Amino acid sequence: MQGSGTEYTGNIVDIVRRRVFYGTVTVTDGQIESVIEDESGKVRDDATYFMPGFVDAHIHIESSMLTPCQFALAAVVHGTVATISDPHEIANVLGIEGVKFMLDNAEHTPLKVMFGAPSCVPATTFETAGASLDSKAVTELLDDPRIGYLSEVMNFPGVLMGDRDLLAKMGAAKLRNKPIDGHAPGLRGDEAAAYIRAGISTDHECFTKDEALDKLAAGAMIQIREGSAARNFEALYTLIDEFPDKIMLCSDDKHPDELMNSHIDDLARRAVAKGMDPMNVIQAGCANPVHHYRLDVGLLQEGDPADFIEVDNLCDFNVQRTFIDGACVAEMSKPLLPEPSACELPNRFEAEPVTPGDLRLPCPSGKARVIGALDGQLITEQRVLDVKTTADNAVADTDNDILKIVVVNRYQQAPDKGVGSRFPAPAVALIQGFGLKRGAIASSVAHDSHNIVAVGTHDNELAKAINLVIESCGGLSVADGGRGEVLPLPIAGLMSTGSCGEVAEAYATLDKAVKAMGSTLRAPYMTLSFMALLVIPSLKLSDEGLFDGAKFAFVPVDAGEDS
């Protein structure tokens, strides 16, 4: 018997039975009371479509530079009803207190945010982080009912070599029947199979189809990632039709300017435009994450939570309305949620200003290892190049796009790391691929430990950009002659208190300035943020030095030392 709920009539996507029909959905008290097919059941061209909402299967909300509440305001407009969110970034700065900040903030939005327990804080022992989460701390998080899974296990060598503390974290997740996310870029064959056999259930780091096929064969689900920096959709999208029950869609890292324009809805659009079956696309973008993570998210079935979206068609997926627990939270590109109230500003920022003299880079041989940045990829190349020197110190060479890269420790120096200053000297190396012809940029968003990372053409500009970030206790900055601007990120040096529109506007201003300085990268700040991510090869820079991800060891900048 039909109750007194609210009725929605149109073409209904039944993803469970893989069919579309014309009918009526009735919502009562936040649940789907009934789904009634019209007598004819035929899809009507003049009607909109009601379908399950989109789920981002792997994202670090911190990378949007927004709090969870502000992120939700932007995401629901694009039909996103839930996210699988790894608070790994803030955990590296503030530990458990950072994770709790995210959990508490997310409770003030209807967006269904499932957080994970970060498994690798710090990501490696070759960098300085603000916190450390051992197996006891991770187990404490996994006991929180708001934590639904163990976040990406980036230390895949540790899994393969049987690291006891890491395996204890994974064991705690298994004991609580919570999924374990993977992160193993480039891992293939028997090693990939061994990694997945240890309990890993997903991977979002595949940048070739062959790699994804290896991991699928071993039993993992593949999350096709298209973020602001790493973009793997073109390499992997055909898997949607080939393995419809094993694929999910995710963004991993999404900057606010892009979030203003699209989210998972854009991947659905592009997949259908590429010829993928719309039903398979909806399964990947909506249903598979719900099943895999056992989300309390509805799929337009009787008795489900009323989480669904209304779109104009199943090709463009233009979102008309978004519903979460029966409430309309977005309509015609506008969120219908209240503005978030003021929140606390947890942070840890103790760096001291640098001088141009701190940024000298000895390279007597004139031949150096240079990080090769690749647009749209987190991986880098290791290049050995002849470099310009002055008084045996390497200097930037804009003609050949060889610039300086600097990482500055922003956490108080541990007593056993030296004498004198509380902080070690900045780590300095060389990078190619940013394209700057003048000036410098810096950021306190620097995966995974979130020290300060900067790239520039001159030591004076580098010091200026770095010090702008330090003065703001976190942010993104640009220094270009007499110009110096910063986008403050007072929450852990990662997030702003502003809205998506406000942060996107400020970010777009910086992005425009950097491109005017010569950068050819699609997202220079996002690319910059991954140049200190040691767990993704090949060559990266931590606050402790230049790191070879293939050897998993530090290497000298001066390649003349090899001979």
Describe this entry's structure for a reader.
There is one protein chain. By secondary structure, the protein is α/β, with parallel strands linked by helices. Helices cover 26% and strands 26% of the residues. The protein has 16 helices and 29 strands. Strand 10, helix 8 (209-217) and strand 11 (221-225) form a beta-alpha-beta unit. The radius of gyration is 24 Å and the shape is globular. The mean pLDDT is 95.
In short:
By secondary structure, the chain is an alpha/beta fold. Helix content is 26%, strand content 26%.
Kindly report the spatial arrangement of strands forming the biggest sheet: 3-2-1-4-13-14-15-16
Biggest sheet descriptor: 8 strands, mixed
Fraction of residues in β-strands: 25-35%
Which architecture name of the largest domain does CATH use? Answer: Alpha-Beta Barrel
Structural class: alpha/beta
Q: Report the principal-axis shape.
A: globular
- DSSP helix count? 16
User: What is the typical, i.e. mean, pLDDT?
Assistant: 95
> CATH superfamily name of the largest domain?
Metal-dependent hydrolases
Number of domains: 2
CATH hierarchy class name of the largest domain = Alpha Beta
Low-pLDDT ranges: none
> What is the CATH topology of the largest domain?
TIM Barrel
What's the number of extended β-strand segments? 29
Radius of gyration: 24 Å
Percentage of residues in helical conformation: 25-40%
